[in-house]
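assembly run, all chains below
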Amino acid sequence: MERDVFSRCHPLTGFVYFFCAICFCAVVRHPMYLAAGFLAGLFYFLLLHGEAGMKKLPGMVPFLLVVAALNPVLNPRGETVLFTLFGRPYTLEALVYGVVLAGMLGTMLVWFGCFSTVLTGEKIVYLFAPIAPALSLVLVMTMRLIPSFQRKLARLAGARRCIGFGLEEQTRWRGKLRCGAALLASLTDWALEGSIITADAMRARGYGTGKRTHYRAYRLSARDGMLLGLTLGLSTAAVTFGGMQAEFLPSVSMERPGWGLAVYCLLLALPVLAWGKEELQWRWCIRRI
Amino acid sequence: MALVHTQNLSFAYPGKEKKTLDNVSLTIEKGEYVVLCGRSGSGKTTLLRHLKSVLTPNGRRSGGVCFDGRPLSDLNAGEQARRIGFVMQSTEDQLVTDEVWHELAFGLESLGMDENTMRLRVAEMASFFGMEGWFHRNVGELSGGQKQLLNLASILAMEPELLILDEPASQLDPIAAGNFLDTVRRVHQELGTTVIITEHRLEDIFPAADRVIVMEDGHIAAQGSPTAVSEALWRGRMPMFSALPTPIRAFWQAEGGGKPPLTVREGHRWLREAFPDRPEVAALPENVSRFSETDAAVCVRDIWFRYGRNAPDVLKGVTLTIPRGCLYAMVGGNGTGKSTLLKTLCGVCTPYRGRVQLFGRSLRHIPKGELYRGCVSMLPQDPRELFAHQTLREELEEMGADAERIRDIAALCRVEALLDAHPYDLSGGEQQRGALAKVLLTGPKLLLLDEPTKGMDSTFKAEFAALLRELTRRGTTVVLVSHDIEFCAEYADLVGMLFDGGLLTQDIPRRFFSRNSFYTTAAGRMSRGVFQNAVTAADVALLYMENKGGQE
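ok done. output:
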């Protein structure tokens, strides 16, 4: 993540960019646009996740195939009938539409995968802190509590296992249920006790004494401005040029893409291009050394 | 000039007759470093909480508290938050937010500070504490020591004039605790902040204190310089004497002459000056191990363990025999595999190579139901992890034992009077005893304890050791892992040292600790080169008196 440009930018820049990119991916059905969006997202995803990303991707393929194949079963419209299934026509157009739908889903998944890596929970909460300070603090605290509950639950289960109340050792479901309930009670007690201390610690540090200000850990820089400008400019241009209309049912027809596609590609490849630019810059710097 | 002043402060919790604070009059000067000590339940925490209004408990109160010449109640909440910092015991629960930078800024945000000042303060604190490397980390990833330093830093960011620390290092291992207490001393010396601190481990803070205040049953029993207080505790035969650092305890017990030593270095000099030549009796008799090697409770042969396929090995060929009925202490630094070894002994971790035998049977062949009923049981580091019910009685009944047996065990652990209390309302020591009772109800032949003395005061340690002794006398084998080498030296039958995933050496405590020169007790370090095998303050005092008595 360290080498990704958007990960190092102000959260606002990343948020606006992903908002635009994901909106386009959710709306555009034109196969060429779709392919461009998918490839750009896939490339970005692999850059962000490296080898681990390779392992995550094949999992969604069967799901997408099912979506593509299932669409004609549910939707009998279309002109070219391939065969009939349960007395309903299975048409080529509906199948094409199914493939497009699956493509949209896949694209969205890939882009959301990038989104959640670049804009972590903390960054999103940070972004909304000035608008809803109380809510954002609650979210920050909750985000800390969930992993700490998970860790504690594992410890509690381990501790109770050593006195013979392990879930694994219980053979009957009643025993399992009783052990689970005791574990939950134990976690609740611990959490309540902890929350009293946290409340004390908050009040001891002046929480609730007046209006809270907000520490800004990120600053908007010139680069943020440039990236924001590029994002918004390219998005507007893509909408203005158009050429992304496509119809599949009852017959397949699509617009001829023109400059719009080029602008669209540029927009969605922005993170990859920015990454490449920095990479080249590094190479250049190193060569000069 | 007085920064804090309490005038005849008395306090009782609602529904309690007994006063928790009884007529406490106390003055703390600006820039002082005050150590407040006393047994658990002597009213230390209650007194400290009276110095900050938002933390003051409800109850009947008389007398008053002044801060900087004004009644404390006249200072508004924001002013108190800024000027009086309070660090508590729990490392985890004091943290509010999820990232280090946010935690540092939290107090400043609450006080409504403007952004530029806030940025500067946060940067200052991060550099003072050397936090640059983990400034953007998630707090969940930090170690216990780092978390507590972060708690301290986020309080200091508000630049308090008075810093109150209530047992801040009791949840930390000795190295992290030493590091934390050093930092507190640095804050006192470099920033001039007034510090009031309570702590069970006095070794690190006692010698440096400007003033020591001893509390007993809600009143101040003694106060003054460390040396004067130690003398008062010795002359008055007060229980807090046992909590003092080893050198000064040895000094008073030996009734020797010279300047009372506060640190190991001073203790060493004191012994050197007392015995310029080699003392006549330099060694105490060594009682040989009374356990037979053939009757083993635990027999571990060449076990290897790692937590994941690609994780590093934690145990690397441990071979170990623990005789039946002994109190075995396993010592060693952090990450040497002590806790993991305990987990393999109770079957939670299964080694991928080697074998573990309990009482002559392979651990793998003992059915799970039988294993945790009458064979092995473990008391976790935090005793609260075993509690899941509303009263201690219900906790014990959960174990499915009959009433008579519950009565027996409750009497053994001395928790009969506490059976109707909520487990979380008990003090740390009482929780430990309650959890131990629960563990003992499984009837273990092998009892495993993970860091049992963490956060215990010295008097309770002695009681706890007596309880363990009673268990071993009844035939239970007790294995504990601990950082507390003073405890191991004093009470264990055998001590083993784990290093780099293997057992280095194993011996009776006297031989074990007298052979080591760094990893040994304070008494062992201060008597090095003078006495051969003194490992406790009592040993040093005994040898001192024997030699001095011979000279006269």
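The mean pLDDT of chain A is 88.

The first helix of chain A runs from residue 5 to 8.

not gonna interpret more than that til we talk
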